[in-house]
């Protein structure tokens, strides 16, 4: 019985993995609702449209990819590789760029596009509530 208990404890603790892909960014709760009818988010109604919104660590970039379910992506604008005081910039290309070290990250999956950067841009979950409302969350 004792052996069974020890095996249970071992598997319980060994199955818990921490996501280390963004280990220098603080863990914070994100729960942002966006009304696509508001002027600042009107571009999100079309494929390839994007907008910045508040929330996350340094703000959030929201994109309409035009594909997938849902067709939206959301990334924190905090640079994942350093303690940069400026938010990452998106210029409509396929990359987010950190102004402190010029590192770049894919808007497809957040993967680093600059050699030597091990961390991904932090991506948040986008839920489509209805035709005009999105909810961005990390839980």
3D architecture notes:
A hairpin with a 6-residue loop joins β6 and β7. The N and C termini lie far apart (37 Å). By secondary structure, this protein is mostly beta strands. Mean pLDDT is 85; it is low at 1-20. 9% of the residues lie in helices and 29% in strands.
Order of helices and strands: HEEEEEEEEE
Q: What count of helical segments does DSSP give?
A: 1
The CATH level-2 architecture is identified as 3-layer Sandwich
| Number of structurally distinct domains | 1
Uncertain ranges: 1-20
User: What is the CATH domain class?
Assistant: Mainly Beta
Provide the CATH topology: Rieske Iron-sulfur Protein
Q: Largest sheet, described in full?
A: 6 strands, antiparallel
The multimeric state of the shown protein is single chain
Widest sheet, order of strands: 1-9-8-4-3-2
The count of DSSP E runs of length 2 or more, i.e. the number of strands, is: 9
Note the beta-strand portion: 25-35%
- The percent of residues in helical segments reads under 10%
Radius of gyration (Å): 18 Å
The named CATH superfamily: Rieske [2Fe-2S] iron-sulphur domain
Gross morphology: globular
């Amino acid at each position: 019985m004792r052996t069974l208990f020890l095996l249970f404890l071992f598997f319980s603790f060994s199955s818990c993995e921490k996501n280390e892909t963004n280990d220098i960014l603080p863990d914070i709760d994100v729960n942002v609702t966006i009304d696509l009818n508001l002027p600042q988010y009107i571009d999100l109604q079309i494929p390839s449209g994007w907008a910045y919104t508040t929330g996350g660590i340094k703000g959030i970039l929201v994109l309409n990819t035009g594909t997938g379910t849902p067709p939206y992506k959301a990334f924190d604008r905090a640079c994942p590789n350093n303690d940069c005081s400026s938010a990452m910039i998106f210029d409509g290309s396929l990359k987010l760029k950190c102004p402190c070290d010029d590192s770049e990250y894919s808007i497809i999956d957040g993967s680093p596009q600059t050699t030597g950067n091990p961390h991904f841009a932090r991506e948040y979950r986008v839920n489509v509530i209805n035709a005009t409302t999105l909810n961005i969350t990390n839980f």
